[in-house]
Amino acid sequence: MKRLILTLSILASVVVSSCIPHKDTLYVQEKGNKDSLDAIVEQQRPYRIQINDILNIRVKALDQDNVKIFNPIGEKDLNASSVERSYFDGFTVDIHGNIRIPTLGKINVLGYTTEEIEQLLEKKLLEEEFKETANIFVTVKLTGLKYTTTGEIGSKGTKVLFQERVNILEAIANAGDIPVTGDKKDVLIIRQYPQGQKIHHIDLTDVNVMQSPYYYIQPNDMIYVKPLRQKAWGTGTNALQNLGAVATVLSVITTTILLFNRL
Questions:
Q1: pLDDT tens by residue, 164-200
Q2: What is the pLDDT of residues 40-72, one digit of tens each?
Q3: Are 63 and 72 a contacting pair, CB within 8 Å?
Q4: Which of 72, 101, 151, 193 has CB 3.0 to 4.6 Å from 89, enough for a Cys bridge?
Q5: Quick one: which H or E segment has residue 201?
Q6: Among candidates 61, 62, 63, 58, which has minimal Cα distance to 74?
Q7: What total number of domains does the chain contain?
Q8: Taking the alpha carbons of 86, 88, 93, 98 in that order, is the dihedral positive or negative?
Q9: Is 157 within a domain?
């Protein structure tokens, strides 16, 4: 009887310890107020251009024929996707932080915002190519927000969203969400800076993640989701699955013992 009780106790411990708690599967739970003004201010800061970013630049004027040279023509190729067109027709920031504009040559844009680049290009065009009466109007946008997902997530690989701002939850939803076996408490964001790459940790189960300076992703971010220990153990994701696994193991052991006893 004691052996039976001990066996059942061990089985119960295995089932409970190898289950994934329900609270670890939920997003944005109330875990205490941690409002931070600094984090909110950081979120509102505009993105500053980095190396390898691709810019979409449009120049408009009263006489549009005069600015054709500045505008991409790949949109007429219906066989090319929007991502492919942006790669071939966009202006890529080289390793020195420069873009190369027709007639204007190389212009350094590293660390500038898109609004600052618009003002810079308008000024240079008026100084070197046009008069005030041409009514030059320049728009500059990033050619989509590109990021990469890897680890324990629905869809791995590079994604592109054509939005100005994308938060981490939207990015993960676009990648097929995090399965039950993914660690939502410690998601890694690998971000590119002029000085190199840095790793940031965020807890998606905490509602205060929305106050994090890393809540909104940036171009070229990599999102890595670690697997939970239960995934490495090969156990089920809930008590019923674990009980079934334990029952299968016990059945195999019992059968083996019976076979040996018959020999």
A1: 899 999 999 999 999 999 999 999 999 988 788 999 9
A2: 677 778 899 999 899 999 999 988 888 888 887
A3: no
A4: 72
A5: strand 196-202
A6: 58
A7: 2
A8: negative
A9: yes
